[in-house]
Amino acid sequence: MEDRGILDVIQGLAAEERWIKDQSAKGTLDPDTGSIRLREVESRLDEMWTTLRRRRALRAAGLDPDEIDLTDPDSKAS
Questions:
Q1: What pTM did the predictor assign?
Q2: For 4-23, how does the pLDDT look when each residue is reduced to its tens digit (9 = 90+)?
Q3: Is 67 part of any domain?
C-alpha cells in the first residue's frame, strides 16, 4: 500500500475513533460494543502509523519501501 493509501486509512480510522468516543459520551452506543471496537480501531491506527513511519524511514535511507514486507518486523532489504 502506498503512503497516500495508508494516510487515507488512518484518516478513516481516526474519524471512526472520534465517532465512537462521541457516541459513547452521549450514551447512544452500547458500552461493551463501543469499548471493544475502540480498542480494535486504536490498535489498527497504531499499526498504520508504524507502517507509515517505517516506509518513510526506508525511503530516507535510500531504500524502496515497496520491496520490503513491512508486516514482518524481521524483514530486511536485500
A1: 0.83
A2: 999 999 999 999 999 999 99
A3: no
